[in-house]
Every structure is written in structure tokens, then in C-alpha cells.
Design a protein that fits this description.
Residues 6-256 form the ABC transporter domain. The chain has a domain at 6-82 and 175-184 and 207-314: Rossmann fold. It has 10 helices and 12 strands. It has helices spanning 48-55, 82-88, 110-119, 126-139, 145-148, 158-170, 188-205, 216-222, 240-245, 250-257, and strands at residues 6-17, 20-32, 37-41, 63-72, 75-76, 93-96, 176-180, 208-213, 225-230, 233-239, 305-308, 311-314. The model has no long low-confidence stretch (mean pLDDT 90). It is of the alpha/beta class and 323 residues long. Strand 9 (225-230) and strand 10 form a beta hairpin. The strands form 2 sheets. It has an 8-stranded mixed sheet with strand order 6-7-8-3-9-10-12-11, sandwiched between helices. The radius of gyration is 21 Å and the shape is globular.
Length: 323
Amino acid sequence: MSAPLLEVRDLRTHFLTRAGVAKAVDGVSFSLGRGEILGLVGESGSGKSVTGFSLLGLVDPPGRIVGGSIRFDGRELVGLPPAEMRALRGRRLAMVFQDPQATLNPVLSIGAQMALAVRAHEAVSERAALARAAAVLARVGIPDAARRLGAYPHEFSGGMRQRVAIATALLHGPDLIVADEPTTALDVSIQAQILAEMKSLAAESGTALIWISHDLATVSALADRVLVMYAGRIVETGPVGAVLRAPIHPYTRGLLDSLPAMAAPGQRLRQIPGTAPSLLAVPAGCAFAPRCPRADAACGAPPPEARLPDRLALCHHPIEVAA
């Protein structure tokens, strides 16, 4: 069996604030193989995006990685000099942000920005760089791509700007793409096109993908495995079909029950009671216990591992799953 492309072990990313230490990522571990698609789900504030930023060395002060290991293709990324990290970002590691305005320069044309991204890592002519840019824009569904290279970000709709951001991530055919809610602003037909393109990219080129999302339906259609995060920790992981069909952690069950599709017409939508804890004051023991219908006094202690052959959850009272 080949070695994983990415190995994350006990990753801890904390924000050192005047109010205290916010443990945004608190002991996260997982691995990812070449061509594998991993879904990362959870409520807002669960640590999903910070996990993605940590992988690419994009956590700004007052946040910093305080512990753990990130090994990419056998190379340790934690503590890597900034120049070496920049050489990897964009070429072998890429990220698609939720807000395309965070990645697009308003005073440069789309073509100029994409050509700069190509030439930052490869010694090619500007013409060759623009030709590659036009090809990837066409792949993500932008019509008349060669002509649109001369347009500026403000001339594109929000959904079109997001497609440009996705196309920029694809320019070098990276080994790993971290996508943070990349299809939120896209309509359903374009979203389906992007998902199909991502699956094709993973299958044909071996590009691994971490797909961060609130949308469980999208994750179920795209991912091979899923990680469910809560309060900076992974509470359940396993094959996406098994986890979303029959979860063993009460939090995962609550996320699924909250979906509108799970309620009959005229029935009130179910929701997880309460709110996620502040990362400045995560409860001792099981962080989900104050909101969990199965909680009891035992949940004041750190939760043990509940295992099935291909599943793992951290819970004192896991939901039983029929064989």
C-alpha cells in the first residue's frame, strides 16, 4: 500500500487573544491518499476553515500552529521556512477560498492575474500562460474564455468570480487542493459542473481534494470519506456513505436531522438545541455534552473511541448501528 500524500497528526492551531486562548484546532489527526476526496463538515466555528488554512501555512497572527505535524508527500510542513512554503503553494498545494474577492486583485485583469500565477512557478512565455488560463477557465464553465481574460473582477458576477478562483487553483494541476465552501455562490447547474470537474480531476490526475462545506448533500455526492468537526476536534470519521446513512455520533445525527429534506411537509424542522461553545471556553470532557440528548454524568470525562471496522467516533454513548 502506498504512503499517504498527506498525514496530519495531533494538529493544534490556537489564537492567542487578550480574552484567552481560542483552541480553533485542538488535536486533529487524519490522512489523505492521492486522488482521494475528503469532506470536512460541521457548524460555523467548528474549526474547518482554520484546519484548511493551517495545512497551507496561511494562519495569520494572533493565530499560530502550537503543536502537531503536517507531512505532505513525506515532507514536514510545520516550521517550514516561508520561502519554501511559498514555492509549494500554488504549484503543489492550492486553496480555493469561500470569498473570491479575497483572492482576486480588482486592478488587474483576470488574464494578468492568472498569467502571474503560472509564471510564478514555471518559466513559460506570457502567451503560453494566457493560453493555459483560457483552457482552465473553459473547464469551469466560463463561456468565450479567451476573450474574458481581458475582463476585470468587477465585470464578473459573484458566481463567475468564484469560478475564476477555482480555475486559478487548477492552473498547475496541484497534488492537493483545499476548497473552502467553493460552490456556495454558484447556481445548481454550475455547481454540478464544478463537482463533476473536481471528481474527474481527482480520478484522472491523482489530485487529492479536501472539500470544506456545510452542505452535506454536496459532500455525499463528492467525497470518499468525511470528517465531522465540533469545537476544534474531529468527532466522527469514516466512508461518506456509511457516516451519512447511519451516523454513530449524536452530533452527526443532529446535523442530518436538521436538513429540510428530513422533515415532512408542514412539519417543524428539527434543530440541535443550544449553540456551539466558545473556543475560549470549551467544556471539559465531551464538548457536545451540553447539547446532546444522550449525555449523562459520564460525559464530563474525555470521550473514548467508539469503533466500527471502518468508522471512528469519540463518544461515551454512540448510536448503535445495525450490522
